[in-house]
Amino acid sequence: MIILSFVEGDAGMELQEYEERPTNRQREKVIEQLKSNFAHDIIDVHEYEHRLDIATNTRNNTELMNLVKDLEPVKIVDNPAITSTNVNINTGRVRDSQTFLTLFSGITRKGKWSPARNSRVFCAFGGTDLDFREAKFPLGTTTVSILCLFGGVDIIVPPEVRVECNGFAIFGGFDDQCGDSSEPDAPVLKINGFAAFGGVDVKEKKRR
C-alpha cells in the first residue's frame, strides 16, 4: 500500500509518498507460509533460508508479500514452534551438518537441543546417546548416519516422529523398536548405519 502525506519542506508543504511498513502479523503470516511450503518440499532449504532472512529483516511491505507470491497457499500453523503432531520445530537457522565422535568415551545429548539437518555419529570403544524427545527438529527430514565399532549407540525418539531405519550389523545388532507414526505431517527421522562388534538401538518413548 502506498501512503501519501504532506511534509513541510523549504518550498512549503510537499506531497511525499512512501511504502507502508509491514505489520508484525503480516510478517508472521509470510514466515509461516514459508515454513509450510518448505515442510511440503515446495521450496528447498537454501531457498527457504534465503527468503526467511528477507522476511525477517525487510521493512518494505511489497518485498515481503513478493516472497510468497509464487508459493502454494498451504495451511498455516498458528504456533510456529509446534506442528500439528505436537513435535518441537526449530523455526530459526538450522545447521546443515554436525558430527558426534566418541573414542573410548561417551556422548549424551538430551533435553532441549537442536539437531542439524544431517548428523554423523562415529562411535568406537564408547557410547553415544541421542534423546530426541525434547529436541527441536528441522522442518522436513532429519538424517542420522552411524558408524559403530566396538561400542554402542542408543537413540530415543517420541512416538509423534516417523522413523525410517536402514542398517546392518556384523557380530553386533541394529535394533529398531519404533512404530510408524500415523500423523501425515509428522517429521521424518532417517537413521542409516553400520555396526561391527557393537550395537545400535533405536527406541520409542513418550516425553517425560
Write a brief caption for the model.
Helices cover 17% and strands 39% of the residues.
Keywords:
17% helix; 3 helices; disordered N terminus; 5-stranded parallel beta sheet
Give a written overview of the molecule.
The protein is of the alpha/beta class and about 210 residues long. It folds into two domains: about 1-65, no CATH class; about 95-205, no CATH class. It has three helices and twelve strands; from the N terminus they run E-E-H-H-H-E-E-E-E-E-E-E-E-E-E. The strands form three sheets. A five-stranded parallel sheet has the order 3-5-7-11-9, with no helix packed on it. It starts with a strand and ends with a strand. The model is unreliable at about 1-5, about 15-20 and about 75-85 (pLDDT under 50).
Q: Topology as H/E string?
A: EEHHHEEEEEEEEEE
| Backbone shape | elongated
Query: Helix coverage percent of residues?
Result: 10-25%
For the largest sheet, list the strands in their spatial order: 3-5-7-11-9
Please, how many helices? 3
Name the average pLDDT: 81
Content of β-strand: 35-45%
Integer-rounded radius of gyration? 23 Å
E-strand count: 12
Report the span from N to C terminus.
49 Å
Q: Classify the oligomer.
A: single chain
Major sheet description: 5 strands, parallel
Poorly predicted regions are: 1-7, 13-18, 76-84
Question: What structural category do the secondary elements indicate?
Answer: alpha/beta
Task: Count the domains.
Answer: 2
